[in-house]
Amino acid sequence: MENNETQGYQLVLTNRELLQASGIIEVVSFDENQIIATSKLGPLLIRGEGLHIIQLNLEEGRLVIDGEVSSVQYIENKKARMKQKGKGFMERLFK
Questions:
Q1: What pTM does this model have?
Q2: Is residue 2 part of a domain?
């Protein structure tokens, strides 16, 4: 069963030329070689050549990109992971 946070989240890559994503919260940065977006499942890094944002609708959480996509990667959010573990800097230092 899906919870509300991940319901409707989807990535569709067609022929490495068209990427459609739902569940996008914001686009942090973009250029022709890299796009960084925040999704419901965490930060998303899209790399390639000639990348262009065709459609961005944050109300619907929809992002459409064309260009040559070489990789799609979720970036680990280390700050959130440390808070989740409940360990501060001093605890990790004196481990």
A1: 0.73
A2: no
